[in-house]
Amino acid sequence: MTLRRAGIALLLLTLGGCVTYPDISQSRSPCRSEPGGWCAFVREAAVEAWPYAVASTNAYVGDDDLFIDLGPTLNRIERSDIPMDYEGKGFGYEVFEQFAPGTWGDPDRVPVARILAFRGTDFDGFTDIFYGTLRSDQIEIAVRTFENERERFSDDVPWIVTGHSLGGALATEVSIKYPEVRAFMFNTSPFYEGDGMTNDVRRTVFNERGELLRRFARFDSAPAAELFTLNCAPQKGTITKHKIRPLADCITWIAAYGDKEAYAVVKANNVSKPMVECGEEGKPHPGTGYRQLEPCVHVARREVSDTD
Fold it and tell me: What pLDDT was estimated at residue 298?
């Protein structure tokens, strides 16, 4: 245990009252004539990443903000039992099958990938911080768990690892040890131990601008990856920005401009428009194939009326 990490862990426990000022960097989008004001490269990345954002959200089994409907692309499957000593160290994960778009209802469809989604930190106690940040126990457990899950299947379906926060650091470690494994991380923790350049071209990270863990990037370099920084909720504080469900909602909403399965998840789960996107609050998603007829300007803060 290092003094640096001990100090960081203490800060993690005391930041609940911190606030941030709205970030106005998206108040003038460079892609105003594109759907929702989101640039094409962001929409394309969101189409690829949204299933893993949903899986990372639903790795938090027992939380009250999970996706109720996973849509036609994802299917949760039974995982192995977690040994009691693993659970005692705060470790958790879920396994999903991913199917090709447009194959819903096909009785012969086979998965195009299996997803192992690591759960992130549970702030109900100090367990995750102690075994996942101050010590490397969860890293060793995550790699061992991935190996055990992969051995359960005799086919050649590729594996993808994903996770939010601490879960992102665990996914990073698996991708470092197994360079053939694709990894997607969300608001990922910078606290990992492997060589951050290994397998960097097969890792994708989505972070919300101003979220909690970005304050600690100065202490530990984030792993190399294709990085997308979104500004979905500029009015929120660092703690809310760090949560996975709002970020997953935003990514899935953006993806729904070009992906029918993402659009189905938006509708089935009543996903709301990101506050930064142009349009009135409560605006329904216009769906795939939508053309932006008027310039769209991202808003950094809600206008305050005389009655507010």
Answer: 85
